[in-house]
Structure formats: structure tokens, C-alpha cells
Fold this protein.
Amino acid sequence: MLDPLANEPKTITLVDGTPVSLRYFSPSDAEDLLKFYRGLPDEDRMFLKDDVTNRDIFHIFTEKIHSGRSVAILAFHDKKIVGEATLHLNLFGWTRHVGELRAVILREYSGKGLTRALIREQVGVAITKNLDKIVFRILENQKDSRKALEEVGFEAEAVLRRQAMDLQGNMHNVVIMSNYVSELWRQFEDMITDSEFEVIP
């Protein structure tokens, strides 16, 4: 698991042999992360909950990281951001024990274990934050995303009808995937011996 104090990168090998480094977001990553979002194909950008390609909205996103309301982990290949996962925290109120997880990776890195690696790191973060539960919201037509989440232990808990409007103004149902942090971590521990990725010593 990444050390939030030292913030030393951890290098993993994806199933196709690609080495990828994971580390926490730092302020110096802001422009590269904005470039990453803006480089997503239009059909992938429509699945973003917030239009972080807009600099003003992106600034709000990074401010949440700086204030401790969100934790972002980035994935790099050849010094280029190829994926990110963000855990959004509720510091007060009824849902302070629940974190909301979001993740996006470049298409050419999908199906290689990168999403799983990012989610595993964020489950580790959830443990350090004393969270009890993690939720992940996806659009109902994101079949591949739903399958990937189910493979690491998330379960569909609810469907919110016409809850999302994409960047083109189209309405979508939202599926809330969730599970308890302890159960997710147990699932990841069980996967270690037959994992899609390995840590490079």
C-alpha cells in the first residue's frame, strides 16, 4: 500500500508486462492531470460525473484534494498519466463513514489490471481513514465497468432512474455499486496469489 506520508511511488507490472508507477497526486501534477482529462475521447468523457476538462471545475476538484476532502492516486507510464482513482470523503454528517470512489484510465490500458490496482490502493486509503463502506456510481450502460467492479467485490445496491445527464444532455440511469471496506480488502488479499499485477521489488 502507498505510504501517504512519504508518497514514494510504487511500480507494478500489468498483465501485458507494462510497468506502471502509482503515487498520490501532488500540486505539481495539476496541469498534467488536466491534460489527461482533456485527452480522453468524447465517448469516455461523457461518463465523467463532473466536467473536469473545464478549468474552473478542475480547480474545485484539486481544491478538495488539497483540503483533505478527496484523495487522488495517479498511474504513470513513461512519465505520462494513464489513469487515476479518487476517493471522495464526507468529513462530517451521517455519511462520514462512507467514501465515494471514481476511477478513469486510458482505453489502451484497460483490461490489464490497472483499474484493479488503483482501486486496491484506494481501499487501503479507506482503511486508514476508518471508512466502513465504499460506493461507486456508474451509468447503467457501462457494462464493462460494472463487470470489473463486480470482479473486485462491488455489488449493485440501487438504480437511480434518470439521475445523470451526460455532456450531450442525454439522460441515464445510475447504478450504485458498493461494498464494505473490510470485505473489499479481504477480496483483494485473496486475489494476491492469482493477481493481474505484481509489485516490482
About this structure: Helices lie at 30-38, 42-45, 55-66, 114-128, 143-151, 181-191. The longest strand covers residues 155-165. Residues 193-201 have pLDDT under 50 and may be disordered.
